[in-house]
UniProtKB/TrEMBL annotation, chains A, B:
Protein keywords: Lyase
Manganese recorded as keyword: no
Domain of life: Bacteria
Organism: Microbacterium commune
Designated name of the protein: Aminodeoxychorismate lyase
Length: 293, 293
């Protein structure tokens, strides 16, 4: 979807405690050039980002998203973002969202090459219509991520827990999935453990329990997965972080890819083999995820 | 170094055989905004690039660079670049280079989100002064790349042979090297084989032979490494692509990181242990690499 509104943000120091950051914001025409060719986001994918779901003007999970932005910035040695400034930017940008579902993106780039400071901006656009996908589900293929399960903890410079702008591999994996006739991909470690999708987290139901791969395995901690787990726990279900093998996925009683914009997409097949699903629970989860949080 | 000149390029179809592409070029003020926030290069690190060394206005290894740009584009499912157009863009941009050493960058991005075509541009800037580094050398640390040696061939969606804009890990590895008190890093596979540096290729001398890790192992095929091998062969030396272990590096008679702008930087220490060097050959290689090719 075409962006609708963009806000350039002059990043404030994390210690800056002013009450109002609006004089650090510059509204932009989204079709006009806004970034210089010296931008390290564009030259090196050097920066971090967040995508936030907005429903009828309400941005969901704002706190989880700004906290993860700060976490990603820390892993990438970027100056700590001022979270009050980002919360206000989200408010200003979400106010420009169209009715229905929309997506707010936050981008914190290392800035212009040899420049003094990061570059930051936020955008809002109408979200794609995922209603049919949430109902009918998605097929996935498993794709080798090349790493073993310990890589993330052993080698923090691989930035596996950071949501960086360097998403070329994620995009290539989605293209490979489509080439294989599937809708999405699930990354699997070299040693056979399931991780995450290129732009979503995996949740499986095994018997009555809900499981997701442990973030320590070098994956991004999903904000939507966190929300779903809180919801399930509050409804008396058991949730757990676990090391899951590819066969745990194919033997699951149901499985979902969850993310901030598509929300809970039930997985109907893995590598061509049908997977059971739970349409009632899927609908319940999406009703929850579409409600203001 | 600050960019000096930028040229926006309207990418021509690969089959377009016109003699002159200058009407597809738009010179830009490098400090002015040139890119929209919808750019996938900036949102996703989704694109490919090249850095070309320029000496006194002459761009070196142009053919190897444009061929690698096309190779990277193919691996990323980007439309095939029109190489005649890129050759002419390099000419136009290099003509704006300052005297002495400069760097031309080519960027081919997937374009604006949901847009019809890739975005492309080229820039030129003065190069940093690497004369002392070429003479005095660099210290390196080895850093785990997380992958095993077979990952690149097994999982092409990891894009290991493509020079993509998703360089956040490469940049993080350089920061980690500096944190450890070294100048640069050499990536090592999970199974103990040396690969490449974040922005350079590795060449080692073992006895009279010159060896570099085989590109099939999931590394970028270095244009400078190719030039150095051609030079060495033409001077009666033996060169080989080989699977090299970390201990082949520490036992080498000499080793270099070679790249288009820094050229041949002799490695003086690996993980704190001194490495032998060959100052005469290093000087000879850099004299060659600074000559017009």
């Amino acid at each position: 979807m075409a962006q609708r509104f963009a806000l350039m943000i002059a990043p404030a120091d994390a210690a800056d405690d002013r009450a109002d950051f609006r004089d650090t914001f510059t509204p932009m025409d989204v079709t006009a050039p806004a970034l210089s060719v010296g931008e390290l986001s564009t030259q090196r994918g050097d920066g971090v980002f967040e995508s936030i779901g907005v429903v009828d003007g309400h941005a969901n999970e704002v706190e989880a998203h700004v906290q993860r932005l700060a976490h990603s910035a820390r892993l990438c040695d970027l100056p700590a973002p001022n979270l009050a400034q980002w919360r206000q930017a989200i408010e200003v940008v979400a106010a420009q969202a169209p009715a229905g579902e929309a997506v707010v993106k936050l981008i914190l780039s290392r800035g212009v090459e040899h420049g003094p400071a990061p570059t930051a901006w936020a955008t809002v656009a109408a979200a794609p219509d995922f209603r049919a996908v949430r109902r009918n589900g998605i097929t996935v293929v498993t794709l080798d991520r090349g790493y073993d399960l310990g890589a993330g903890e052993r080698a923090p410079w691989l930035l596996l827990g950071a949501k960086t702008l360097s998403y070329a591999v994620n995009m290539a994996a989605l293209r490979e999935a489509r080439r294989r006739g599937a809708d999405d991909a699930i990354f699997v470690t070299r040693d056979g453990y399931v991780l995450e999708a290129p732009t979503a987290s995996l949740i499986i139901r095994a018997g009555g329990d809900f499981l997701t791969p442990a973030p320590a395995g070098g994956i991004l901690h999903g904000t939507t997965q966190l929300s779903v787990f809180e919801y399930l726990e509050s409804h008396g279900r058991t949730t757990r972080y676990e090391t899951l093998t590819a066969s745990d996925l194919t033997k699951a009683d149901a499985a979902w890819l969850v993310s901030s914009i598509r929300l809970a997409a039930p997985i109907t097949a893995v590598d061509g083999a049908p997977l059971a699903s739970d349409p009632d629970l899927t609908a319940e989860l999406n009703t929850f995820l579409l409600s203001p949080r």
